[in-house]
Amino acid sequence: MPSNRRRPLPPFAPGLLLLLPFLAVAPPPAASAVGVNWGFASSHPLPAAQVVQGLLLPNSVPRVRLAAASSDALSALAGTGVAVTVGVPDALLRPLASSTKAAAAWVHDNITRYASSVRFEYIAVGDEPFLLSHGQHFQPFVVPAAANIKKALTAAKLSTKIKVVVPCSADTYQNASMLPSKASFRPDVNKTMGELLSFLSNNSSPFMVELDPFLSFQRHKNLSLDYYLFQLMSHPVKDGQNKYDNYFDASIDAVVTALTNAGFSDMDIIVGRAGWPTDGAVNATPAIAQSFMIGLVNHLAKKSGTPLRPKVPPVETYLFSLLDEDQRNTTNGGYERHHVFLQLALMVTALLCHLVAPALALAGLAMCHMRSTTTTNSMIRVKTAATSMA
């Protein structure tokens, strides 16, 4: 007889609580809002209700990006106020592009049914459909699928509340020199990209880019690890009058340049993915991933923007990822299955409290609550050394 006991959360789960000071603070104008990616490619997934009630809600995580529509996840998120982005897998692009009825049915089953209680923010059409390794396999269906989803949202009177976006891999634009000013969209996607950008612009939707700093680090041996970890560099990358001391800013400005060259210089940008693996390859370690996460959240908290967009950081940045996925595609390498950041959060608590919750830091004590997976509740008290961080 199956047990009704809830499966315990991983032992590192309390780490997520300690992202609270950064995730939960409402961003002021021109600040980058932060969310988390939640994928489902796991052979032993945690129950959705347990993830929401035991991880997201106790820590006031404000937004989550679902890799695909999940009735369990959406039901668990109902009534929580968490902003939700729902992904549409690449496999559905062709049928959604070829049939308005199919798009209407998808929107009804996965959006309209939950719209009264789930705070939907975006529908992300495709999972990096322009990935270079995909060739032309999905490209013809991206914009038609997005357009049909938009029509279905309009028919359901939801189009003013929910925007349609398309997650674009970093190799959608080419930049062999790694200089932002040289970036442009790949020739083989130029026509489709023009159609997509027009669609996004006409519907006031942002451009979503997926960043994989680890893959970039592997491929560009001339760039130091410090560049990817937001470490101070004695010789920053020079691009004309601009200087770049980290991969993140250079990547954003590469997107800005590509958008500008395509005629959409003012389009907002969302970073749909940013993380560093903890296993599966050389330099994929918890220690280095910790350094990346500290650098990323520190950088986002400064709200400094980039050389091409000073004081204007990405509209949103989604950390990758909430949980490890042992069945995730490993085209780029086995490290793809090891991106969980929960165990790293414990290491950055004091930094986050100091940066974005100074009242807590000055008080010398950050108190984070977690609903225990046993019969009692637990409280984690993390002492912060505010004076040593000033």
From TrEMBL:
Please state which protein family the record places this protein in: Belongs to the glycosyl hydrolase 17 family.
Q: Does the keyword Membrane apply?
A: yes
Q: Which UniProt keywords apply?
A: Glycosidase, Hydrolase, Membrane, Signal, Transmembrane, Transmembrane helix
Q: Which residues form the signal peptide?
A: 1-32
BP term (GO), one:
carbohydrate metabolic process
A Pfam family annotated for this chain is: Glyco_hydro_17
Where are the bilayer-spanning segments?
A: 340-363
Kindly list the GO molecular function terms attached to this UniProt entry.
hydrolase activity, hydrolyzing O-glycosyl compounds
What is this protein's record name? Glucan endo-1,3-beta-D-glucosidase
Q: Does the keyword Ribosomal protein apply?
A: no
Q: Which InterPro entries match?
A: GH (IPR017853), Glyco_hydro_17 (IPR000490), Glyco_hydro_17_plant (IPR044965)
